[in-house]
Amino acid sequence: DQQVKQNSPSLSVQEGRISILNCDYTNSMFDYFLWYKKYPAEGPTFLISISSIKDKNEDGRFTVFLNKSAKHLSLHIVPSQPGDSAVYFCAASAGYGGSQGNLIFGKGTKLSVKP
Amino acid sequence: ETGVTQSPTHLIKTRGQQVTLRCSSQSGHNTVSWYQQALGQGPQFIFQYYREEENGRGNFPPRFSGLQFPNYSSELNVNALELDDSALYLCASSLQGADTQYFGPGTRLTVL
Question: Whose CB among A77, A82, B43, B46 lies 3.0–4.6 Å from B34's, allowing a Cys bridge?
C-alpha cells in the first residue's frame, strides 16, 4: 500500500520549457513534504520542501505547490536545463517535520531535459 | 563543511553472511537515519538514531540493527543476509528539530 505515489515513471521536456512533476499521497497525517533529486551513483540531494500550512514555496527555478484537499503536490522547474536531468523523489513526513521520524518516498520520476 | 560519507561504496556478500555498513554524519548533525533503496523503488526507512538510541523504526526485521557513536557516526548491521537484501543503503543525517535530512552517496550491497 503506497502512501506516496509518483505515477509518471518518466518525463521528457525540451530545454527552456517548464517541467512539472506530480506526487499524490493518501495519508492525511502527512504535514511536511520534500523533493529530492538523484543522479546515478549519488545519494538523493535535497531540493525544496513545503509545510502543510503553506500552499506554495519557491526557490529560484523550483516551485512546489501543495493542494491539501486533493492530497497532491507538484514540483515546477522553470526554465528546465539539461543539468536537471535526474530522478526526482517526492517524500512526506507525519508530525515531525523533515528531520525526525520516517520519510515516506515515492518511486521517483526520471526527468530528461533535451537540449 | 563535510557532507555525509558512507563506506564501503560497494560490497558483495553471500546469503547467510553478516555485513556492517558505516556512515559519518554531516558536521553538526546529531541524528542519523538509514534507508534501503531497492532497484526501481524509492528509499524505505529502516531506523533512525538520536543520542545513540534508536528513535524510530520502519518495517524491517530485527536482523537489521544499528549503532550511533558519541561523534554521531553510525553503523548498520545486517545478519543472516538474504538475496532480497541486495539494495542501495542510504544514510541521512540531520539536526534534531530541523526540517531536512541530507543523504550520503550510499553503499551498494549485492547478496549472492
Answer: B46
The half-sphere exposure of B99 on its side-chain side, counting CA atoms within 13 A, is 12
Contact A97 B45 (CB under 8 A): no
Is B43 in Cβ contact with A107 (below 8 Å)? no
Partnered with residue B87 across adjacent β-strands are B109
- Take residue A110 and report the three cell numbers written for it: 526520471
- B56 versus A81: the higher-pLDDT residue is A81
How much is the pLDDT for B98? 72
DSSP letter for each residue of B19-78: EEEEEEPPTT--EEEEEEE-TTS--EEEEEEETTEEEEE-S--TTEEEEE-TTS-EEEEE
Q: What is the pLDDT of residue A94?
A: 82
Angle at A110 between CA A98 and CA A71, to 5 degrees: 45
> Cβ distance B75 to B22 under 8 Å?
yes
Give B59-63 contacts, CB < 8 A, sequence gap 24+.
Answer: B60/B36
Which of B99, B102, B103, B107 to mutate against chain A (most A CBs within 10 Å)? B99
% chain A with pLDDT above 70: 94
Cβ under 8 Å to B: A residues 5-44:
32, 34, 36, 41-44
